[in-house]
Each structure stands twice: as C-alpha cells, then as structure tokens.
Amino acid sequence: MTTTLKFIAAAALVVCAQNALAQKGETVKIAWIDPLSGLMAPVGTNQLKSFQFFAEKFSTNNPAGVKFEVIGIDNKLSPTESLNALKSALDQGVRYITQGNGSAVAGALIDAVAKHNERNPGKEVIFLNHSAVDPDFTNSKCNYWHFRFDADTSMKMEAMTTFMADKKDVKKVYLLNQNYSHGQQVSRYAKETLARKRPDVQIVGDDLHPLAQVRDFSPYIAKIKASGADTVITGNWGSDLALLVKAANEGGYTGSFYTYYTGVSGTPTALGTNSAGRVYQIAYSHYNMGGQMDKWTADFKTKFNDDFYTGSVIHIYTALSEAMAKAKSTDPVKVAVALEGMKFKSYNGEVEMRKTDHQLQQPLYMTVWQKADKKYPYSPENTGMTLAPVKTFESYVSSTPTSCQMKRPG
Asked: Is the whole model's pTM more than 0.90, yes or no?
C-alpha cells in the first residue's frame, strides 16, 4: 500500500510539474502587419526590426518559457492589403497579430479578427495593437480580442493640454493633422480640452491633409504663418511630420510644435538644431528612460544603426509572457483571460491592462527637443540633439473614461 501511495504521489507531482510549464518550449508566432513600402516604409522597417529584436531578447528569458517568432507582412498602409495579410497569417497557423500604423487599418483588422473568432471556435486570434490610437477602439468599437498597448489620442491630449495650460506663451493655436480617424480625433480633442483648460486660447486654423501623400508642406506653413499662430498641434507621424517640420524650418516659422511622434524615423534629422526648445512630444516613453531601457536602446543602435522608439513592443512581450505563464498555455482564449486586468512592471513603471476596455493604463511624458548633454545623452539619428523629459504624468492623470460595453465570449 505504501509503495502504491508513493507511486501515485510521485505521478501527481510529475503531472503538476508538466502543467506548471505546459507551454514551455513552444514557439509563439506573431504576424506583424504594417507598411514596408511607400512613404511610411522607414517607420514600418524600424518597427519590424524592433519586434524581431525583442523576440530574440524575450525568447532567451521569459516566465512562460516560450520562444517568439515574428512574421513580417507588408500591408502597404492599406486596409484591403491588411485583410489579405491576415488571411496569409491565419494560413500559416498564426494566433497572434500586431499592427499600429494607421487606425483605418486597425479598425479593419479588429472587425476581421472578431468575425474570424466567432466563426472559428478553437482557432481564435488576439490582436495586439502597438500604436493605432483612435479612442473609439476602446470605447464604442471596443472588442474582446483587441488589446491596445499604446496610449490613445484622448489620453495623450489630456496630458498635452494639461502641460499647455501653464504655458502663457500659447495664445493662438493652429491644428494641422492627417485626414483619417487619428488626425480627426487629435483636432477634436485639442479643441475640447483647450476650451476647458484655456478658454482664452484662440484656434486660428484647423486643416486636414491626405495621409502619406503630401511631399511639400510649404503651402501649409504659409497658412500657419499668415494666421499668426504661435503654436501648432499635430498628430502627424512618419514622413508627414518630418516633411512638415522641414518646411517649417525652411519657411522661417518660429512657433512651437506640440506633437505625438517627434522621435519617429526621419523627424529628428528634419528638426536638426533649429528647432531646439520649440518642439514638444507627448508619449509613453522617450529616448532617455534610464535603466534597462537604455541598455536595450544601445544594443539596438549597435545592431541596426537605428533608433528604438516603439516602446509598446516591450509591453507586448512582457504582457504575453506573463499571461502565458499565468494561463499555463499559449491558447489565445486562455491568454486573453489572463491579459484582462493584468498589472505588470515595465520600463515606465507599473502598468495595467484595464479590464473594462483593454486599454493599457500607463504614465506619459512630455519631452522637449534640445541639445544632448550628460544628463540626457541619447542622440537620435546622430543629430547631437535629444528629447529631454520636462514633465511626467502618472497614469491617473492621463487616464480617460471609457464607454466600452465589452461583450465577452460565452
């Protein structure tokens, strides 16, 4: 009897040990669906390298014991091409996708993933949104299978205008944005929050332009100068911001820019030294975070001769690793349950994937373009300049309410 009991106990321990790391050694494929061609190709190329770089880093050490593999697919910044890319990923057995450049693309993918999961039980897919910031995705269009690791447009604008409220030199503001959901939302929230916090500020212009199509922004700069604006608020990114600030420098515009994506490929070079002290960025990270982030950034620079700026990549791998360890599985159904409400330590402190709407709650940082120095030494694109932090907004400051009525499976 004693021998039998010992055998049963030993067998139970083996089963428990196996269950504890049931997913250990598995390879988790993530399909990256973003632009590798066109004007926004430099941004997409940088981000694909970022996902692959950290797949390698996290594969060597994560609590779930899994390996990560990234499959890059060029979507040409097109919703239609993105749906084709999703189908290709599904055909390759991929259960996790990521995208972030263009909220029109993200909206199409959110809808397609939801329909796929409803029609194909047992083959569910999770959408890990790294940068698409339309607030509707975690409000009226929220979906159980979508998780956003960036801060949305409204969160960033809440922090940005809180900072601007104390800047007495801000009197006349010009809004210039890309003509799609993100740019339209930047314009909307800028007007709403400034009216609430600085009713004395005049909005002297509000223009929308085609996404990734304008090659010469000098006509827009001429309009901005003619309006008398001392400040420009823009959610532009990639070539649309780089070419805008280039035109501003060439056209002699000396006002300030409040931006979301100054650190993104091409813009640091376009800014040069002429924009020191005049260009601000609100974001969930910056180039001088310190600690482990500085080591990773240096490693990335050494390997690719490029700058790492999409910090949500680290959030994604950290959250996935911990969720898979908690779920003891790589099954998206079980991982989604573990992701909801998860709190975890990241490079910018403790963050939380809010269960109500799947919007990551995290600190935001206002930075200013200035000369790199001993305190803030990192120089993007070898410009000799940097984005230096001037204000930190804790999660509770930038957090915005949600109208999401989450429909959960089953």
From this structure: yes
